[in-house]
UniProtKB/TrEMBL annotation:
Residues 91-101 have a biased composition (Low complexity). InterPro entries: Peptidase_S1_PA. One of its GO terms (biological process) is DNA replication. This is Serine protease FAM111A-like isoform X2. It comes from the Eukaryota. Transmembrane segments: none annotated.
Length: 550
């Protein structure tokens, strides 16, 4: 507990003047480059017990409060007022003699240094046979006065910037704001319900092992199809997937890898024919890096497709994966907003030349990804995480336990172990959109049916199917007929199909270009689909072939 000490003399018989009894204390006039501690010990108004305890001088009028070190020269503190704060000594601590002026600690050649305690164990043993106690001796940090001056100057600028950013008048308001934001970002994953739900959903997460290539993480998306990163199949610039989608390495998915004893593991082989493999940039110039794999056996875990959701721009997230090919781990963290990504990189640099070199090298080696993240229209989710190599392909959950993205990469560098400046994930809806379009182009009715059936059980994924049907109609080609029919027939099996049907009818009627598309020669299949499902009603006469709502 800290105690505030007033500047009145502790001796009631003192002849001090009233001016000496004010609560704020003025530093004495400079005398031969005197330090603060020397000035206080020579002042004579303080009891010796004050110097036995640990105390700090705080400038009275500064915001934020500025502390003054005891070894600072008083010639730069003239006419300023301070408060003295004492730290109460524990009753078990033995008192030591107060420092005297002219002692080794106060020599002029040490006035530009900070005294740091160094522990040293005494070799003597007490009469009671007590173990030796540690004694502390000071260690000098050279040129610390200049360092303190620089840091204080930088801190003042930082406070001004934070006041402006958070629209606060005082430093205390900034601290309150930051404390509140930190609490908001971490409290979401401290609730027992959320933790239990994440543990339940983690059963769908598995370790992916591409033999002789790489290890990573994946998760059951729907039915018996696994989603992971495409770069897990790349080594030394070569992809181990050919143009026909055949994997030239053995691949396994291991579930339940949670216990270090590796009991209850469930290893399932992956079929050598890959379902979808996309790496690079899509038609909208968005980064894609994903592979959809098919398990040899059907896993009993629940797919996470029904828990897919658009990514939030702020808030807490949690990753679940297998970093380093080890046991399954979780890491709650916070989204770094797009406009603050530059700050995240700058925060890591400027510490020392070696660190700057390592970080800049990492950025240069991943220049394409760096430029991608710094674009104003970047769609990736960014954050700081301790899950590095081997965590690629991990699902990223939001605070509602919805899957919003798939962890993909970062900017790693080696400094006493592997570290990373910032990490990023590809939004799940970007992946699902590209996956469905590919299945549509291939007319893969089986997978489209399974995907739709699973997606209709989730709130956000149901809306995703609705938007996919609109895409099929808007971008209609005769080759889309099989895909549209398969998806719609699956929708009609769902209990919510009437609501979706009504929404589609309203949308079609409001879109003149869609109604005109129905009349174009070659689009008879689309016209027939609309009529059969009563999405539009056409006149029965040949002369009036305009669509009307039912």
């Amino acid at each position: 507990m800290a105690a505030m000490v007033k500047s009145e003399p502790l001796d009631s018989n003192s002849d001090s003047s009233p001016d000496q009894k004010r609560k704020k204390m003025k530093i004495a006039e400079p005398n031969d480059r005197m330090t603060v501690e020397t000035a206080l010990t020579r002042d004579g108004r303080f009891h010796d017990n004050v110097f036995i305890q640990t105390f700090t001088l705080v400038e009275s009028e500064s915001d934020p409060p500025r502390c003054v070190e005891m070894n600072v020269l008083v010639d730069c503190l003239d006419k300023q007022t301070f408060k003295m704060i004492l730290e109460e000594r524990n009753a078990t601590q033995a008192p030591t003699a107060p420092p005297q002026a002219g002692s080794n600690l106060q020599k002029e050649d040490e006035t530009n240094s900070i005294q740091l305690p160094m522990s040293n164990t005494s070799t003597e043993t007490s009469a009671a046979g007590e173990p030796p106690k540690k004694q502390k001796y000071p260690v000098t940090v050279t040129d610390s006065a200049e360092i303190l001056k620089i840091l204080r100057h930088q801190f003042a600028d930082l406070v001004k910037q934070m006041k402006k950013r958070y629209k606060k008048k005082k430093y205390s308001g900034v601290l309150s704001h930051l404390s509140g934001e930190f609490g908001k970002s971490t409290e979401g994953f401290s609730e027992v319900y959320t933790v239990k739900k994440l543990m339940e959903l983690s059963d769908s997460v598995c370790m992916i092992d591409v033999k002789g290539v790489k290890q990573g993480t994946g998760f059951l998306l729907f039915d018996h199809y696994i989603l992971t990163n495409a770069h897990l199949f790349k080594k030394d610039g070569i992809f181990y997937v050919n143009e026909y989608g055949h994997i030239s390495a053995k691949v396994t998915a291991t579930f339940n890898k949670e216990n270090p004893s590796e009991s209850n593991l469930k290893e399932i082989d992956v079929k050598p024919e890959i379902i979808d493999f996309q790496w690079g940039f899509d038609a909208y110039n968005r980064h894609v890096d994903f592979a959809v794999l098919e398990l040899q056996d059907v896993d009993t875990s629940t797919g996470l497709l029904c828990r897919s959701s658009p990514d939030p721009k702020t808030g807490g997230v949690c990753l679940i994966g297998h970093p380093g090919g080890g046991v399954k781990r979780t890491d709650p963290t916070t989204i770094i907003e797009r406009e603050r990504r530059g700050e995240a990189f700058q925060r890591e640099t400027g510490k020392n030349d070696r660190m700057d070199m390592l970080i800049n090298t990492s950025i240069e080696e991943n220049k394409v990804n760096y430029d991608m993240l710094m674009k104003p229209d970047s769609t990736e989710v960014t954050y700081d995480t301790c899950l590095f190599h081997g965590a690629s392909g991990s699902p990223v959950f939001d605070e509602s336990c919805q899957v919003i993205a798939m962890h993909t990469g970062g900017f790693p560098y080696k400094d006493e172990g592997v570290k990373s400046v910032i990490e990023y994930a590809i939004p799940l809806f970007t992946i699902l959109e590209n996956f469905l379009i590919e299945m549509m182009n291939r007319n893969n009715v089986e997978i489209l049916t399974k995907f739709t059936r699973e997606a209709l059980t989730g709130l956000h994924s149901r809306d995703f199917i609705y938007n996919f049907i609109r895409h099929l109609v808007t971008e209609w080609k005769p080759s889309f007929s099989a895909a549209l029919t398969a998806v719609w027939e699956t929708v009609e099996e769902n209990e919510n199909h009437l609501r979706m049907k009504e929404n589609l009818r309203t949308w079609i009627i409001s879109k003149k270009e869609v109604l005109e598309k129905i009349q174009i020669a070659g689009n008879e299949a689309l016209k027939e689909f609309m009529l059969e499902n009563i999405l539009v009603k056409l006149s029965q006469t040949d002369d009036d072939d305009e669509p009307m709502d039912e």
